[in-house]
Amino acid sequence: MTQSEATRDRVEQALRAQRIETASWAFGNSGTRFKVFAQEGVPRDPYEKVADAAVVHRFTGVAPSVALHIPWDRVDDYADLARHAKEQGVALGAINANVFQDDDYKLGSVTNPDPGVRRKAVDHLLECVDVMDATGSRDLKLWFSDGINYPGQDDVRARQDRLAEALREAYDRLGDGQRMLVEYKLFEPAFYATDVPDWGTAYAHCLQLGPKAQVVIDTGHHAPGTNIEFIVAVLLRAGKLGGFDFNSRFYADDDLMAGAADPFQLFRIMHEIVLADALRPEAGVAFMLDQCHNIEPKIPAVIRSVMNVQEATAKALLVDADALAAAQRAGDVLAANAVLMDAYHTDVRPLLAELRADAGLDPDPMGAYARSGYFEKIRAERAGGRQAGWDA
Ligand code: RM4
Ligand code: MN
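^ thats the input. predicted complex w/ manganese (II) ion below
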């Protein structure tokens, strides 16, 4: 085998093993605080969301699980929903807790000054672990809208103590093989001080909690200009990167399709992953999408996002690691940078198309979905009834 054949072999193998998790809420109606534009064919319940996620997997071959959001995806029998998912060819993935949509949470959930409200919030986190037991999910993903809008509104350190206490209770409830992924977000809805605003705060809590607690990076949750790949590298080095919520942004938490606004950033992130050999499922990094599709049709938007992540990954895998290391050792700044750019500028679409064909898939997932008639079918079947939305 020549060196280039060996490289191709390695790249193909890694791409075949890649797994990207979709999000149930990406299939429901969503919008901004100005307007939710309803779409035709939108799922009416969690079963239909799972069915749509399975369609994404059917056409991409690399999206075999779908994350749930509780209570948006509340059902009577989670084991039955897991069975339904399996029948459709997917599994249920991370369970996302929602402690941000109840009147009680106006001043916070797990950091609320009122112990009664904190109890309610922690009980919800525990309920989510019960759901995980029923669905067989590994990850509990926690994002808190908690924070304060005005200086003096509450005691910042006391809120951190309350947070630590709540996380501890949920952490202690986790079973073997279950994990807690702690997400951070710079601001919004709290504007003065968010309780988990950055990776450092999330990391400090995870460190105190123990090995089952890991940080999750939502790519949309940073200030403009933040070097996200640096955070990736630091967390990987510390063994504390639990996963990603991929999406893209221009200004704030825009939740646009992953790799749409800044495909180069996605490449740089995946480059850190590849360098640390963290693409392998055993490395424990969950590659999830967390997006909303407000104006574009949802299923093809998710397919496109999955493909964008695949393309960034393929480019990252093509970086000539030996040449890069040699240039770095030699202090050759321009050569090192050129190695990265060469990989980034490679058109990997033919390679991915070939891999799909080898796997018995249509090489063009977007076209295949459009031709499949699935949209026409759900548009007819799901007409009327109450469509699921991000608040339902
Ligand atoms: C949050 C955060 C969470 C997601 C919700 C819908 O901003 O990103 O991961 O569950 O939005
Ligand atoms: Mn997220």
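The two ends are 55 Å apart (CA to CA).
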